[in-house]
Amino acid sequence: MKVPERQKLRIPFIADSLLSDIQTLGLHIRRMGVKSRIDQINWSDFSYQPDVVLYAGYTGTHLWLLYQVEGDFFRAKALTDQEAVWEDNCVEFFCTKEDAFEKKPSESAEIVYRNFEFNAIGTAFSAYGTTAHREFLSHKALGQIARYSTLDLNNLPEEGIPFDWELIVSIPLDMLDLKPGSSFSANFYKCGDLTKMEHYLSWSPIVSGKPNFHLPQFFGKVKLML
Prior knowledge:
Layout: E1 8-11, H1 25-32, E2 34-37, E3 40-41, E4 51-58, E5 62-73, E6 90-97, E7 113-119, E8 124-129, E9 134-136, H2 139-142, E10 146-149, E11 162-172, H3 173-176, E12 183-191, E13 200-202, E14 220-224
Parallel strand pairs: 1-14
Antiparallel strand pairs: 2-4, 3-13, 4-5, 5-11, 6-7, 6-12, 7-8, 8-9, 10-11, 12-13, 12-14
C-alpha cells in the first residue's frame, strides 16, 4: 500500500487572555489561529462534500479547535457523551505521538492514539488505545473539554434540513500529553454516517478499501509553535 504524503500543520500560540471571553472566542481563533480545510474525499462512493474549515490555536494549557461547516444536513440523536456522535453531523480530531511513525508498517496496528469526536450540539465521544484495544474516557474526563456550538439547543433544525454550523472545542494539553513546542501526529475529520447525505472527509489523505478513520499511519504532522 502506497502511503500518501502527510499533511503538515503549524499551530500558533494564542495568549490565554484573548480566549477568556466566550463572546469573542471565534473572532480571536480565526484571527490568530491557523486555517486549514478538511476536504479530502478518500472514498468515491461517498462523494458528498460539505464545506469544512478548521481553525486551530493553543494556549499554555489548552488546544483550541474551531470547526466551521456549511452545507450539512441536520441530525443530532446523540445527546449524552460517549454515544454514537459519528452518526450525526460530526467533526473529529485523532492524535498520537510523532515517534509512533518510527514503527514499521506491519506494526501500525500497535500505534496508541486518541480520538475525540463531537456532533453539532457538542456531544462528545472519546477513547484511547490501539485500533484493537481502546478504552473510553470517563465522563469526568470529558467534562474537562469545553464545547461551544452555534446551535440553540432549544430551537434545533428539523432532521434532514440543510444548515450551517460551528463548533469550538478546547482540550487540555495534559489530556493529550502535549506541551508548548510539542510535535505530534494527527488527522481531522468530518463525517455523518446516518445523515441525509452520508460522507467521510479527512484533512490528511487516507488509503483504504472502505471508510475508516482509525488508521494512524495516515495521520499528518502537527507542531505547536513557540
